[in-house]
Please model this.
Amino acid sequence: MATTASSQSSDAPIGLSSELLARIRTIEIRTRRLTASLVGGEYRSIFRGSGIEFAEAREYIDGDDVRLIDWNVTARMGTPWVKQFVEERDLTVICAVDSSASSLVGRPVAGRLGAAGELTALLSFAATQSNDRAGLLLFSDGIDAYVPPKRTTRHALRLVRDVLTAAPAIGRGTNIGAAADYLAQVLGRRSMVFVISDFLADGYVESLRGLAQRHEMIALTLNDANDLALPDMGMVAIADAETGERLWVDTSNASVRADYAAAGAARAERRRQTLLQAGVEEIAIDIEGDAITPVAAYFRRRAQSR
Model:
């Protein structure tokens, strides 16, 4: 396992290229608009805080839930009164982002990591706009960085920056179990944990299940078209994204492409079954398309079901 690195630095910006600053700004504008118009209210209705507390009593009006009648006040006042409560939010949202070498595969330039940056922005802004706290865990074959949660918009931008400036390296695999175990240690009260990864790993079901028993968890699986289908490009050298190992493959061979597709489908089904066993909901995201829309759609469906 890689050496654990805990990031406790300030939110002060570091030197960034103008191109990266423009990307962050574009992501910020888009996700702010989405959280305000689509996600904000649905986020609050879906992800409740840590509990409710009594605020005051008021007179009963038609339509009030009779279960909320305050019988002591009602007896004293001679007319029906009901209790009013306010939600204690103090919710923490953690984005656990896979920063292994395979996170660079997929989209041109940014790969899966670019999609992860957009998703981190969406979830962090939704949290801070609801006065909740947002934090970040970057992991590969170990814990690369942990940014403790805070409530400010400046902090949310810092989380996006940290994802987009992560430096995946060949030879760094994916240890989802180690990430889950680490969060189980550092998270106190119940939190929302979004694991953003391609989930090209094994042996993490018990760790995820343990974390899901104490916290609400959602897996955002980042899928690339090449995960499931091999294009016909003739004889090509294919490199393993995490080990760097190269293998020559005749992609013009129909049986090779069929075997590849079957292996990809089996891998996706194993992932689905593993997350199901761990008690973790999954949102599948096609990184060649719009990474944010599937999450916004999930928020809408879940809000409507409530």
Helices lie at 18-46, 71-77, 111-129, 153-164, 176-186, 205-214, 254-278, 293-305. Residues 1-14 have pLDDT under 50 and may be disordered. The beta strands are 51-59, 81-88, 92-98, 133-139, 143-150, 192-197, 216-223, 235-239, 246-250, 281-286. The chain has eight helices and ten strands.
